Amino acid sequence: MKTQKRMAASVLGVSKSKVKFSEQNLNDISQAITKADIRGLVKKGFITVKKWSGQSRVRARHISQQKKEGKRSGRGSIKGAKGAKLGKKEIWMTKIRALRRELKKFRDEGTIERKDYRSVYYLMKGNAIRNKAHLRLYLTEKGMRRGENHGKAKTIG
Fold first, then answer.
1. Would you say residue 82 lies in a domain?
2. Would residue 81 count as lying in a domain?
3. pTM for the model
4. Does the pLDDT of residue 149 top 80, yes or no?
5. What is the C-alpha separation between 134 and 62, in angstroms, rounded?
6. Is 157's pLDDT higher than 70?
7. Which domain holds residue 122?
8. What is the DSSP string of 62-81?
9. Is residue 72 domain-resident?
10. Which residues in 4-13 are b (16+ Cβ under 10 Å) and which e?
């Protein structure tokens, strides 16, 4: 019966421990000597595969769903170094792109002059401007912003 079990496992594509022989037809199974015989017995239902009973995935699916919703991602869940989740370069790219968009918007609106645009652009590139709020504050304090409600801004003239 060892040989039949080995051949059945090969035919069914499972391990030997997963092969199940029908108790009533053990005599027929022991007579099988080729893989073709085994295939015939599988077709008849004398040889079957044991049902898989493993670890439930219900909890795992629930956790996975929560993670998709953005939960379970607090400080306590973060492993690794400070820059492991988002690298320094990605953070820099996100920040500088936002700043450049804002500065370009001011230039296109005519809120700042072209020469001021270039000087502030280089300041941003040198990491002298922290964020968009700081950019607006800098432009206002240096009197580069034109238009209404901008403090010490130059007048259009």
1. no
2. no
3. 0.50
4. no
5. 42
6. no
7. 88-141
8. HHHHHHHTT-S-SGGG--S-
9. no
10. bbebbbebbe
